[in-house]
Write a structure and sequence with these properties.
Layout: H1 3-35, H2 45-74, H3 83-91, H4 105-123, H5 131-168
Helix pairs in contact: 1-2, 1-5, 2-3, 2-4, 2-5, 3-4, 4-5
């Protein structure tokens, strides 16, 4: 690698930090929306639609982080019908000589639930979002955000180490 690679790592870190900020804002918006409703009550349709969009956006931001990392370090390309699933799988693998896993396997399993729902939101035509399908995703969001951010912060430590090693060359 060259010094340009060090700059790329620093840019990648800055982009990821920005994406994590967006994820935090999404989580705050979902929490805020849910505090206005009885815990056991089904929110009105307009609120469910908004929550569905926030869940969509959450996964979109997660995917953006993973795409940035895998493109920068793996040369991953978003081709084929299954690239969304492939991205999650690849992100949870240690790639010897290249990088450690970005996310744990347990985080991958949790994120896959949001990927599936994002697909439903993006490709569904019936906007009467079923609360039964969404409520666990909404209630689990803080836990999943924490898992993802912990994994990504561990990975950012690896990027720091990679940048230091490149500067020593």
């Amino acid at each position: 690698m060259t010094m340009a690679d060090t700059r790329q790592l620093l840019i990648l870190k800055a982009q990821i930090a920005s994406d994590l900020g967006a994820i935090d804002r999404i989580e705050e918006a979902v929490s805020s929306a849910m505090t206005a409703h009885e815990p056991e009550a089904t929110p009105p349709q307009i609120v469910r639609s908004g929550l569905a969009l926030y869940l969509h956006d959450f996964y979109q931001a997660v995917e953006q982080v993973l795409v940035r990392i895998t493109r920068a370090l793996n040369g991953f390309d978003t081709l084929g019908e299954a690239w969304h699933v492939d991205l999650l799988r690849l992100s949870s693998l240690d790639v010897e000589g290249l990088r450690p896993a970005v996310i744990s396997d347990s985080t991958r399993v949790q994120l896959d639930r949001y990927r599936s729902f994002r697909h439903f939101v993006r490709h569904g035509y019936d906007r009467d979002f079923m609360w039964e399908r969404m409520k666990d995703l909404v209630s689990d969001l803080p836990k999943v955000v924490t898992l993802f951010e912990e994994d990504v912060h561990r990975f950012l430590d690896v990027l720091d180490q990679m940048a230091r090693e490149l500067n020593e060359e």
